Amino acid sequence: MDGFNIIMVIAIILFARLGVRLVTGYIKMKKDTKEDTCTKDN
Amino acid sequence: MEKNKTRKYFKYAIGEIILVVFGILIALQINIANEKRKDRIQEITILENIQEDILLDTLDISFNINFHKAFIDAEKRLLFFLRNNLQEPGDPIHYSSALGVPLTIALHKSTFNNLQNNQIGIITNNKLKKDISRFYDFFVQAVSKIENEKPIYETYGSKKVFFQKYFKLSKTSYEMNNVQSNNEDYYNPNTEKFNMEFKDIKGAKNDDAFKIELNESIFIRQVKIDFYIDMVNRIKELNDAINEELKTLKR
User: Among all residues of chain B, which has the CA nearest to that of A22?
Assistant: First the structure.
C-alpha cells in the first residue's frame, strides 16, 4: 500500500503539535506584552 | 521590551522546528534501516529458494542424461552393426533402448517467475541478478524447447516405423529402473518393457533410411546430452555464486 506510512503519521503529528505550540506561544507572548504595557501605564 | 520578547519567541520557534525536523529525520532513518533489514531477509529467502529450485532441477536433468546416454549407446551399437558385414552383433545390443522413449523435462521456475513479476530489484548483487536472469531466460528456455516443444528433435516417432518393420517383441522383458530412486523429491518410474529382437536383419542392413534416421538420432541426442551437461555445470556455478552471496548477506 502506498498510502500513509508510519513516518508520514509521525511527521503529521509532530508538525500539528509544533503548530499548536507555536500559536499558543505567540498568543501568550502577545498577552504578556499587553499586560506589561498595562502595568507600565498604571 | 516587546522587540526582546519577539526575538525570544522566534528563537524558541526555531528551536521547536529544528527539534521536530530532527525527530522526523531520526524516524526516517530508523524506517529505512528497518526496510533494508526486511529486504535483506526477503533476498536471502528468494536466493535460498532459487538455489533449492536449481538443485532440484539437477535431479531431473540427471534423469534425462542417464536415459539419453543409455539410448545413444544402444543406437551407436545398432548403427555400427547395421553398417558392417557381421551376421550377429559382436556385443549384445539393447534394441528397446535403441528405440528409446520420448523424454520431457520440467524445470522449477516458480521462484524466478515470482521474482520477475514483483521484485527483481530485491537482489542487490547486479552480476548475480544478471546470471540468474540469463540462466532462466536463455538456458532453461532453450533446454525446455529442445526437449519438449520441438518434435523435430524427438526421433522416437520416426525410428519406431523402422523398428516395427525389422523387429519383433522377444519373450524377455526388462525393467526401466530409475537410477536415483532413493530420492523423495523425485519421480521414480519403475516400469517394464519387453525386449526386442531382429525379425529381418538383412532388410534392416539394406535400409539406408533406417541408418540415416539412427545417425540423426545419435547426433541430436549427443547435442541434448552436451546441452544438459553444460546446464549442470552452469547450475554448479550459479549455486556457488548464490552461496557466496548468501554468506555476504548473512554476515
Answer: B13
Q: What is the mean pLDDT of chain B?
A: 87
Count of the separate structural domains present in chain B: 1
Contact criterion met (CB < 8 Å) for B9 and A25 = yes
Binned at pLDDT 50, 70 and 90, residue A1 comes out as: very low
Closest partner CB to B5 (pick from A6, A11, A32): A32
Range of the domain at B173: 2-250
Specify the pTM.
0.75
Contact A33 B28 (CB under 8 A): no
Among the partner-chain residues B1, B2, B20, the one whose CB lies closest to the CB of A14 is B20
Cell numbers of B177, please?
A: 529402473
* Count of C-beta atoms within a 10 Å radius of residue B7: 10
